[in-house]
Design a protein that fits this description.
471 residues; alpha+beta; nine-stranded mixed β-sheet; 17 helices
Length: 471
């Protein structure tokens, strides 16, 4: 998994000769340029969907930050340095290290590591829940400052590596803050190489390369340095088999992105929801639990945001009316208690309403009731057949973030712009999170596997990988 890998820059790097390893895998396999990610297009919710085969409103992880309706508190896994500091470093670290895999991912779902009886590995993936009890040892600075305990119990796959907190091979040595304590591409490749050289590769290994995402955020989608660096690390992995040809004879390879990114415009880039919703009292970022005076909670995930309505006197329509005054908000959606999901836009009049199990069938064989203006989500109809436009699998992905009892409004912003709240990061190069195809479509290279997923969506990958493991 290469974070923020996209089709156009990947093709460009291959054509320029700067990604020879990925070219080799592509030329000896099959290339799929448009796999649909989940929504919101944020890594932690994407990875949880891919591993569980379920949307956020089933598996429970709604983004990098969201309001946990069950616990009545805000969860934040770390959206940016300033926001982490304002929200509280301890809260962020404990959510990611003590709660995500142990508590926050619903116990009603199983990851692929839990579902299969075959041995699996997880290397540098934030979402990893498995069946084996293990112990994490956080970096010394975190327990010395009281941010984390010295030891953390968790359940992980049989072969598990996550930076310096759980290392397979001591030679990887990811001890310093400069190396992000091992959460980097080089550490990921070194760990999987150690398994190859010891002839201990399990049936399935998920290896996460986070580096490209950081570069694209800073420099924009045309910057290919992150892909080139990932390519070099994958070359080292193939070299460990003796030769590249031998590698693809011994193993099957899937190279995949998690989300795309959208380049930022250089003027009037950021949409501040606090200004739009100024008539209401918004809970400050310094707290994770609301007080009686708090009317709204904002949970901003770069190019999308949740607006959680706490005050019973405030209706959906009150919030939506204010959101519609901002032309940059392209999707504004909420679910009423009767199960119907309604969608409007700051860019056009009209309303689209939908819910599952109707007479209209989409390309993923999902059935929907539709009423109103289908152009709001760029849908087209061919008799009873729904075709998606700029928002891939829009109905299912929007429905997967909403439940009828959480009183939240979901908003996304047009390409080129980013949503901000208190302390939100302001990316200069590119950003993601939205429903738009620029954020939502990722490429995939498959080498050594003839069978494709039932549908080219990450939510279908768990079923596909389990089938491959049983063959």
């Amino acid at each position: 998994m290469i974070d923020s890998l996209m089709d156009a820059p990947l093709q460009e790097e291959i054509q320029a000769g700067r990604a020879p390893t990925l070219q080799f895998l592509r030329d000896n396999g099959t290339y799929f340029p448009k796999v649909v990610s989940t929504f919101p297009t944020m890594s932690v919710s994407i990875d949880t969907t891919m591993l569980t085969g379920e949307p956020p409103n089933i598996h429970g992880i709604y983004g990098l930050t969201y309001y946990n309706q069950k616990e009545k508190r805000v969860v934040n896994f770390g959206t940016g340095p300033k926001e982490i500091f304002l929200f509280g470093v301890k809260r962020v670290l404990q959510a990611a290290m003590l709660q995500l895999n142990q508590k926050l991912i619903s116990k009603d779902v199983k990851t692929i590591h839990e579902e299969t009886n075959k041995p699996t590995a997880s290397i540098n993936a934030m979402v990893y829940r498995g069946k084996d009890h293990t112990e994490l040892r956080p970096p010394w600075i975190t327990w010395l400052t009281g941010l984390l305990p010295r030891k953390i119990r968790t359940e992980a796959p049989p072969i598990f590596s996550y930076g310096s907190i759980h290392t397979l091979d001591k030679r990887s040595n990811p001890k310093s803050m400069l190396s992000q304590f091992g959460v980097n591409d080089q550490f990921s490749s070194m760990e999987i190489i150690s398994l190859i050289k010891k002839d201990k590769l399990p049936s399935l290994s998920l290896v996460y390369f986070p580096g490209n995402d950081i570069i694209v955020h800073k420099k924009g989608t045309s910057e290919g340095k992150g892909i080139m660096k990932a390519d070099n690390q994958i070359a080292s992995i193939l070299d460990a088999f003796g030769s590249w040809e031998e590698a693809i004879q011994i193993c099957s390879f899937i190279v995949l992105g998690d989300s795309g990114q959208t380049n930022m415009v250089q003027k009037d880039t950021y949409v501040d929801l606090r200004k739009i919703l100024h008539p209401y009292s918004i809970m400050p970022l310094s707290r994770d639990i609301a007080k009686s005076q708090d009317q709204l909670i904002l949970c901003v995930n770069e190019r999308m945001s949740y607006i959680n309505i706490l005050d019973e006197e405030i209706s959906y329509r009150d919030v939506v009316r204010l959101c519609k005054t901002e032309k940059k908000l392209d999707v504004i959606a909420w679910q009423e208690s009767d199960g119907w999901i309604h969608v409007v836009s700051g860019q056009t009049d009209g309303i689209l309403s939908f819910r599952p199990d109707g007479d209209y069938l989409d390309e993923y064989e999902q059935k929907w009731h539709l009423e109103g203006d289908i152009s709001i989500l760029d849908l087209t109809l061919d008799e009873q057949k729904i075709q998606y436009g700029i928002y891939p699998d829009a109905l299912s992905r929007l429905a997967g973030t909403l439940t009828s009892n959480d009183r939240s409004v979901v908003v996304t912003v047009s390409p080129g712009y980013e949503i901000v709240g208190q302390g939100s990061p302001k990316h200069k190069g590119a950003s993601h999170g939205s429903l738009h195809h620029l954020d939502s479509l990722v490429p995939m290279i498959v080498t050594g596997i003839k069978q494709a997923p039932e549908h080219l969506r990450l939510i279908n990958f768990k079923k596909w990988l389990l089938q491959l493991l049983e063959e």
